[in-house]
Amino acid sequence: NAGVTQTPKFQVLKTGQSMTLQCAQDMNHEYMSWYRQDPGMGLRLIHYSVGAGITDQGEVPNGYNVSRSTTEDFPLRLLSAAPSQTSVYFCASKGTSGLYTQYFGPGTRLTVL
Amino acid sequence: AQSVSQHNHHVILSEAASLELGCNYSYGGTVNLFWYVQYPGQHLQLLLKYFSGDPLVKGIKGFEAEFIKSKFSFNLRKPSVQWSDTAEYFCAVNGAPGGYNKLIFGAGTRLAVHP
Q1: Residue A19: strand pairing partners
Q2: Sign of the C-alpha dihedral computed for residues A33, A37, A40 and A46 taken in this order
Q3: pLDDT score recorded for residue A77
Q4: Of A12, A33, B29, B91, which has the fewest Cβ atoms less than 10 A away?
Q5: Tens of pLDDT along B39-57?
Q6: Which residue of A has its CA nearest to B47?
């Protein structure tokens, strides 16, 4: 199993540009989520999904869109990038029970100029 | 809303010293508690977790944590640290009141171990 994979690893955008961060998992996990990591703030939940066709907002959803058309994939879209979205983005997945541990991807480092 | 506090932002230790990292959460009720570690340039890995039962849980690499419900705490300990423990450590909680789908993280503690 590859686990949780993310692409790209690094990305530089200009303010106002759009892009999609890709996340895929091969563990047949129903639950997937996106976090952003900023210095001194830990990880903050952006959006999550409990299954195909079902998404919900986390702590910091503004400026980000998600969709879940398949169990395997959970892309994160930035419609109009802003410098405040400069961060490291992590995707994670787990089984639907609250007891299951989240498995994290390697991250995408995004810089918005 | 649930929040997680990690009291030490930076910790510097010499090899063989003992480690204790504090973690407190704000909202009581039934919670699951986790400690994750992020080594330089790597993604988060689970160190240990508490769901129920024995409040003293043991994880990988000699780490352990104690859940004290009355203090809303889940402190991480290791009796003797190694240089390879240099990393950032995150405490996290899910469950009450936001639900099990929202994992709330603390700000992290950056540990540097000197040989």
Answers
A1: A78
A2: negative
A3: 98
A4: B29
A5: 998 889 999 999 989 999 9
A6: A101
Residue B108 distance to chain A (closest CA, Å): 5
Min Cα–Cα distance to chain A from B34, Å: 9
Alpha-carbon span B58 to B49, nearest angstrom: 8
CA distances from A79 to A56, A108, B31, B102 (A): 18, 17, 35, 24
The beta strands (E) that lie in B16-71 are given as: 19-21, 24-25, 31-38, 45-50, 56-58, 64-68
* CB of B50 less than 8 A from some CB of A: no
State pLDDT tens for residues B89-103: 999 998 877 787 888
Whether B32 and A99 lie within 8 Å, measured CB to CB: yes
Interface test with B, best of A7, A101, A108 (most B CBs within 10 A): A101
Structure tokens at A84: 């405040």
